[in-house]
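Dear Dr. H.,

I hope your travels went smoothly. While you were away I took the liberty of generating a structure for the chain from your last submission, since the lab meeting agenda had it listed for discussion. I wanted you to have the full record in hand beforehand rather than looking at slides cold. The sequence, exactly as received, is reproduced here:
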Amino acid sequence: MTGTLDKIRIRDLVVRAIVGVNPDERANRQDVLINLTLYLDTRRAGQSDKIAGTVNYRTVTRRVIQHVEASNYYLVEALASNIARIILAEFPVERVRVSVEKPGALRAARSVGVEIEREREGAGERG
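The corresponding predicted structure, in token form, is as follows:
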């Protein structure tokens, strides 16, 4: 594939999860805020106006929610990494950016989190 990839953004997805290292974080679910950017070529969908030419963001969202609600991580880094792994394995995207934040985790900050970007293996070799 040549050229720039298009982006599908899923913003401010709030999911309840067990994530953290402190005893209260291990015992009680807390809100995590997830943002996703899916990089892919959407030209076929733009021309055909058919969902088959793109990624169904509702399906992606359901899968992420399913994983996060069933998960039990110590670190947001691990949660973000596994969300990226699932998206790349199960959906036709070339690259994904995932941010996971824990609102209220620090008293002096609105939120704390991590943002990662992962690419499908061999994606950079296409062209």
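Two observations you may find useful: Residues 6-107 form a domain with the GTP Cyclohydrolase I, domain 2 fold (CATH 3.30.1130.10). The radius of gyration is 16 Å.

With kind regards,
E. W.
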